[in-house]
Amino acid sequence: MTINNSEISNDPAQTTEQSEEQKTTLTLQDIAAMVQVIQLATERIAWKADELSSVGILYDRMVAFLKVAGIDVNNIAESSKE
Q1: Per-residue pLDDT reduced to its tens digit, 36-65
Q2: Pairwise CA distance, residues 54 & 78, whole Å
Q3: pTM of the predicted model, to two decimals?
C-alpha cells in the first residue's frame, strides 16, 4: 500500500508500470465523506450496540488520518449538521 498526500492506492507490487487493471484509490475527500456518514448515522442511532466499537475504531482512525493530512475535522462535523 502506498500513501500519497491526496490518495491511498492499493498496489502491492509498487512498480512504476501501469497495470491493465484500474488502480484502487481512496481520496481524502472519500475519507472525509465516510467521517460525515458515521457522524450522521450516529446522530440518527443507526448502529446496533455490538457494532459501535468497530464503528468507533474506524472513525477514530479516519479522523487521525485526516488530521495528519491537514484536513479540518471540526469543519466536517459542522457541515454534517446542515
Answers
A1: 899 888 888 888 888 889 999 999 999 898
A2: 23
A3: 0.59
- 9-35 b/e (C-beta count within 10 Å ≥ 16 → b): eeeeeeeeeeeeeeeeeeebeebbeeb
Structural domains of the chain, count: 1
Tell me what the mean pLDDT of segment 5-31 comes to: 64
47 is written with which cell numbers?
448502529
Range of the domain at 62: 27-82
**Are 9 and 24 spatial neighbours (Cβ–Cβ below 8 Å)?**
yes
Is residue 62 situated within a structural domain?
Answer: yes
DSSP 3-state assignment of 79? helix
